[in-house]
Specification:
Blueprint (H helix, E strand, L loop, with lengths): L1 H6 L1 H26 L8 H9 L10 H11 L3 H21 L3 H17 L6 H14 L9 H18 L10
Helix pairs in contact: 2-5, 2-7, 3-4, 5-6, 6-7
Amino acid sequence: MMNWLQSSKTAAVCMTVLRLYVGWKFLTAGWGKLSGGKPFDASGFMKGAIAKTTGERPDVQQWYGDFLQGLALPNVDVFNFLVPWGEFLVGLALITGTLSTFAALMGIFMNFNFLFAGAISSNPNLILMQFFLLAAGMNAGRFGGDYWVVPWIRNHSQAIFRSKKPSLKSPSV
């Protein structure tokens, strides 16, 4: 299954369709927050998640509520920037097929954080789809920017490392 997912042209076509769908979901979510008229504010969402840490059957685990209370909420301005731009850029990367594997990984990270905060919505579905994109690796972006960008990055990063080979000589004293 993994070999097919990572090397089949048919799988690449399927991953392209999946990538476009997931990318569109992220792009529109991010764009809605960026162009919604008033500035995006995650503080209400965070406070709601913190409130869900109490009761007989809490929806949010205490450790995540502590993270939100102690780190995220005091730095809400950082998250107000990261969330909409992160969603938008993940969507853009997936739609263009550029750095698809990294974009899928960042999308999974965001979706898990939304889940940890008690927001079910489409997050589990998106995580499942993104795991397929992640497992497909380069084949997920075969019909996209990854076809050109990833080989370029590999060639340039290898050239950098080749030019800086460590010396086996001991330093002069």
